[in-house]
Design a protein that fits this description.
The protein has 444 residues and is an alpha/beta fold. It is 50% helix and 14% strand.
Length: 444
């Protein structure tokens, strides 16, 4: 296995700066890294390296310690005060204890002794980037667990949901921002996660942010990060999501200060952490969601018009559950299995009477209301009176039996028509007599 084969996946997206006053060593490192990383630059002095940092962002710096005009460690310490966010590998021929302690204090991630082989420096780079990614993934995982968020699928075979899936497929390979609209509980975040999963960013982070939940005084550190007293960067959510997808929910409730800051990020794809002198470029896809009318918010002066036009490039309207009622039975069965497993409690029987009641209910809280009902019923050991049933048919037979499927659908359409059988017959494409005959049979 060649070094490229072994480390290529880890290094391929990295931007690297090599700092060494010896042209031979600098050119050697640039040569072995160029085919393996996203971008590599060389600097022959601390001053030249400082100019490079002012112009570009680097994920990793490979730094010689002994150079004219000062040590590499002195340079790192100074740059951290200005805003230096890259991980650092120190290359040195002098590995004494004093140097090692100074390297730790300066925040150096690893060091490699001269002379070294190509695979040694590549291995150190891979370890450093793996640790960096692991720290990020752990932070995001803890945040998701704390928020109770999780991956899921858009379930259902209704035409309304099929239209949404078609739009997700078309938009997945594009960098275009997408605005998800619709009532609360319709699955806007699930749709955003599915779009991320279909894209070429699927292996990168998906970070969801509830704009209404961020206190005004926490906006900058929470989203943009902050440079702490020791010069180390505590990354914000935008930087943690770098390379992936940032999902901003409840954008209509975004504070005015965040609206202005977000507009600059969307225009420049750069952020400046609190206390930093330098900006950091980002590679992010932005997705947004709201259950409010953003155009009305703009007209009322509560939402910036220029931000609205940035956000509202492509829109996906999530259908309410009442408009995809044919999916209710499938969703109820899925939630019942899920909660029986996660709660460690016996699931409830979904008989034909309960399924009919679930299908005919209007669900103003949409899928979230249905999910909450199933969880609460499993915990209490029974459905509330308005959904309780005493039918003899349960399980797959109750869900899949064609006569029961037809009954649920016809009665639901009758509900939509306020009991008008002629109108229901017209919508269903059958005769009025067919409706009368079926309703009479079901009443017996």
């Amino acid at each position: 296995m060649t070094p490229s084969d072994e480390f290529g996946g880890t290094l391929s997206g990295a931007q690297v700066l090599v700092i060494d006053d010896e042209p031979g060593m600098r050119n050697f490192l640039v040569k072995i890294l160029k085919p393996r990383v996203k971008r590599v630059s060389g600097a022959g002095s601390p001053a030249e390296a400082t100019r490079a940092l002012d112009e570009h962002h680097f994920d990793l710096v490979i730094l010689d310690n002994i150079m004219p005009g000062g040590t590499g460690l002195d340079w790192v310490t100074e740059q951290r005060r200005r805003g230096f966010f890259a991980d650092t590998i120190l290359i040195t021929a002098y590995a004494d204890l004093e140097t090692a302690i100074a390297a730790l204090r300066a925040g150096v991630s690893d060091f490699v002794l001269k002379p070294f082989r190509a695979n040694q420096i590549l291995g150190a780079m891979a370890r450093t980037l793996d640790r960096k990614n692991l720290r990020r993934d752990n932070l995001l995982l803890r945040r998701e667990l704390h928020a109770g968020a999780g991956a899921g699928k858009l379930l259902g075979a209704s035409p309304a949901l099929a239209e949404v899936r078609g739009l997700l497929d078309r938009l997945a390979p594009l960098p275009t921002p997408v605005l998800f609209t619709g009532e609360s509980g319709t699955g806007k975040e699930l749709a955003a996660r599915q779009l991320h999963g279909l894209s070429d960013r699927a292996e990168k982070p998906f970070v969801a942010v509830n704009c209404a939940a961020i206190a005004v005084d926490r906006i900058v550190p929470e989203l943009f990060g902050t440079v702490e007293g020791d010069g180390r960067l505590k990354p914000g959510l935008l930087l943690l999501a770098d390379g992936g997808t940032l999902f901003l929910d409840e954008v209509a409730q975004m504070p005015e200060t965040l609206q202005a800051a977000l507009l600059r990020v969307l225009e420049d794809q750069k952020i400046r952490p609190d206390g930093a002198e330098r900006e950091i470029p980002l590679n992010l896809r932005f997705l947004f969601a709201t259950n409010a009318d953003l155009a009305s918010a703009v007209a009322a002066g509560r939402f910036r018009a220029d931000l609205y036009h940035r956000v509202n490039v492509m829109r996906i309207e999530m259908p309410p559950l009442r408009e995809r009622s044919e999916d209710i039975v499938e969703l109820a069965a899925l939630f019942m299995r899920q909660f029986a497993t996660t709660l460690g409690m016996p699931g409830l029987a979904l008989d034909e009477e309960t399924l009919l009641k679930l299908r005919r209910y209007d669900w103003p809280g949409n899928v979230r209301e249905l999910k909450n009902l199933i969880e609460r019923s499993v915990i209490l050991g029974g459905f509330p009176d308005e959904f309780a049933g005493h039918g003899a048919v349960t399980g797959a037979q109750a869900i899949e039996n064609l006569d029961l499927v037809v009954q649920r659908h016809v009665l639901h359409v009758l509900d939509l028509c306020d009991g008008n059988r002629a109108e229901a017959a017209r919508r269903l494409g059958v005769s009025r007599k067919t409706i009368d005959r079926k309703v009479t049979a079901w009443a017996e």
